[in-house]
Amino acid sequence: MIQRISSHQFMILSSGILLGTAFLPIAQILAAVAGRDSWWSVMPGYLIAVPYGLMVLSFMQRYPGQNLLQISGNVFGKWAGKAIAVYYILVAGYIGALYVARAVDTYKRMIAPFMPQSVYTIGVILLVIALAWAGIEVLARFSEFCFPLVVIGLIITMLLAIPRFEWDQFFPVLANGIKPVVFGAVKTLSFPLEYIVSLTGLIPFLPTAEQSRLRSGLLRAVVLVGIIMTLVTLTEIMVFGPMEAARLNLGILSLGKMIEIAKTIAGIESVFEGLWLGAAILKITIAFFLVVWGLEYIFGFRKKFWLYAGIGLIFFIIAILQEGGTQVYLELSIAENYFLVPFALLWVPLLWFVERLRRRFGKR
Amino acid sequence: MIRRMTCLLLSLLILVLALSGCWGKREVESLGFVFGIGIDKGSKPGSYLITFQIGSPKEADEGGNNIQDYTISAEGSSMREATDKIYNTIIKHPFVGTTKVVIIGEELAREGINSVLDYIQRYYQFRRSTYLVLAEGSAKDLLNIKLRTGKLVSLSLLDDIEKNDWLANFPRVRLGHYLTELGNESTAPVIPLAHEIAPGKENIQYESQDGEEPQEVHISGMGVFAGDKLYAVLGDEETRGFMWLQGEVKYRVLSTKIGNEQDNFWISARVIKAKTNWKLQNNEGKPGIHYKIGITTDLDELSAEQQQRSPEEYLQFVKNSSTAFNALVKAECDAALQKSYELGLDFLGIGRKLEQRNSRYWKQIKDQWQQVMPGVPVTVSIDNKVESGGSSFNPPTNPVGSGQ
Fold first, then answer.
1. Which one, out of A93, B37, B196, B299, has a CA that is 20 to 30 A from the CA of B161?
2. Does A120 touch chain B if contact means CB atoms closer than 8 Å?
3. Between the CA atoms of B33, B38, B43 and B45, what dihedral angle is there, to the nearest 10 degrees?
């Protein structure tokens, strides 16, 4: 029997995937493009998830129990569907493995530098395999636990950073016009579009009859995460200024390192790092699921332990081969900006458009 | 079933996090907590002389102070190499996450400090909240001073910095703030200056246990940087002016002469509230800055001619005398502005203020900022209010005609 998640769980899971670990690099990525005004870019970038998400959800009623790969097979033809699935597996798998490498790098860099990369990578991957094996419903519950904690962690970090604000860093506003903001919004696209790709695999697990709740859940998730990301970016700009924000590779962790409470409590970034790892696990598990669903579609596999172990092994190999955080950063930006973003930007609207055309001409 | 599975996986997550922290662990007794780091130019070109000031808990049976401290220096061609020499020399493993103050030697500062700051901002144990201080002379010599109180110099400097809220004599510069300031293209960064006080120096007298050797340190004045090189050292008056114009004065003590030149009458007060506002103001078509400094004071000392005054007369007298505070603050602000023009370095952030409020104009002038800066009209107005006149209307006086 197919597992289902409730519309509330869908909203939290969507928020968790949208938030993911994007709060780690977002200010750096945007400040490099849009400088002081980078925080303006976040919401317009994230809002793209709304029309794309609605397009994906619109398939649910006409193709119940099918993910977008299966629907692509129905609409574009079997081989086109399988070709899409191959690309989908490669992109999702590679990005998922790079997320493992980034989680490990972040943790090692800030908290446990002496721990071998392999030990931590194995720990993360075993956890991801266990989560994936337990199914989407457990992942949804996991997100219900982790997401609020991650948000609380971020809010506390931002609030405690207020005494470190350099208030003059806010001005001037839009001194270089709207163009850098637009470029910044384009740079943001990878985060919401990663969520859209995840959603393409999630739809069979959603309650088909609750379309309006799912739609409002989608909107709420996008707006909520958009606001959080805007605040994270703004906080980093206010504390570090645009140049420093663009120079720091994990600004939010540097922010954590500046926080001291009453001269006695410091180093709280280690605590929040634990929470943030939950978000990373969530995102890696979704990528893991995408690979599983892709393989299931191409080869018709059922749930097999060796399949999960094999994917885990591939994730491990890719992650362990990365030579440090900078390489992971570069690889991720290439994979996301050049392989995932154009794919998601084209695939979903094209499928939606062709499917409507086919319906209009009675070719379903 | 699903709830149990979720709990199990969450427990696994916690285990992954918690147990991994044990890898490469060091017991707290084996650590030497670094409170201050001094960085000087080494004897060879491009090398550094690093001084660590370390405190570590004593064993319970050692008696005396609970903290055992020592200061040790090592030279290396890089910050890391010099640090590692210290690691290899002492029994305890230095933990630099507790570093409160980084002191940079004057000679090194004149050659540029970005390269030394790289290690401090990159190495994961350091915190961006660490304070930066310049040493007059060598940082090593400063850190090796044996204070009369027995306190470590770095901790004494930390006290100085933290109590500076009440004195506002110098800016507090954290590593994070300094790095942020580097991103402001027109603003010259500043770092406060620490120096030793030998007995009798700067009108401070004390009995030194080592003859004439200094046993006190304090911070006053600040260094102004051109790029990453120390360019000039500002005196007390200019630094105080900087503090007013930056709006960094919360509390302070004002003390100034009043009355005729030949009289030796003084008025002193505590600033209990201060606020500096600034706005862009066109002066003959030229955008400039107008600072408005609002001060509220409590009168602490008023020496004047011995004369009984009624409360009304006293009130008027205080009002008249307190205008001297305005002149004092104005003179400090003017000194800072003058120094900025003289050096051609915008350590007051005037360019940044123009950028904030009139970015279009700023874009036109920013490339010639150093030449344009002295021509930008900057005005300062001070509004001082004496809130409390103290516990008496008049100075102590003898009855009229008895011994005056």
1. B299
2. yes
3. 110
Nearest to A240 among B10, B180, B363 (CB): B180
Measure in Å the smallest separation between the Cα of A162 and chain B Cα atoms.
Answer: 14
Q: Of the candidates B97, B127, B356, which has its C-beta nearest A171's C-beta?
A: B356
Of A111, A142, A244, the CB nearest to B6: A142
pLDDT for A282 equals 93
Contact B17 A277 (CB under 8 A): yes
Instruction: Give the pLDDT score at A363.
Output: 61
Query: Which CATH superfamily is A26-352 part of?
Result: Amino acid/polyamine transporter I (1.20.1740.10)
DSSP A33-96: HHGGGHHHHHHHHHTTHHHHHHHHHHTTTTSTT--HHHHHHHHH-HHHHHHHHHHHHHHHHHHH
Does B124 contact chain A (CB < 8 Å)?
A: yes
User: What ipTM was reported for this prediction?
Assistant: 0.87
Encoded amino acid at B236, one letter: D
The count of other CB atoms within 10 Å of the CB of residue B402 is 7
Boundaries of every domain in chain A: 26-352
Rounded Cα distance, B10 and A278, in Å: 9
User: Which residues of chain A register pLDDT less than 50?
Assistant: none
* Residue B10 in tokens: 């969450």
Q: Is A265 on the interface with B (CB under 8 A)?
A: no
Q: Which residues of A touch B359 (CB under 8 A)?
A: 172, 175
Spell out, as residue ranges, where chain B has pLDDT lower than 50: none
ω into A172 cis (within 30 of 0) = yes
Give yes or no for B149 touching A (CB within 8 A).
no
DSSP string, B234-297: E-HHHHHHHHHHTT--SSEEEEEEES-TTS-EEEEEEEEEEEEEEEEEEETTEEEEEEEEEEEE
Which backbone phi and psi does A128 adopt, to 5 degrees? Answer: -65, -45
Other residues' Cβ atoms within 10 Å of the Cβ of residue A179: 10
- CA–CA separation, B80 and B382 (whole Å): 49
pLDDT digits (tens, 9 = 90+) for B185-226: 899 999 999 999 888 887 888 877 777 788 889 999 999 999
Give B180's contacts in chain A (Cβ within 8 Å): 166, 169, 239-241, 244
| pLDDT computed for residue B282 by the predictor | 87
Which residues in chain A have their CB less than 8 angstroms from residue B20's CB?
Answer: 107, 112, 115, 119-120, 123
Q: What is the per-residue pLDDT for A255?
A: 87
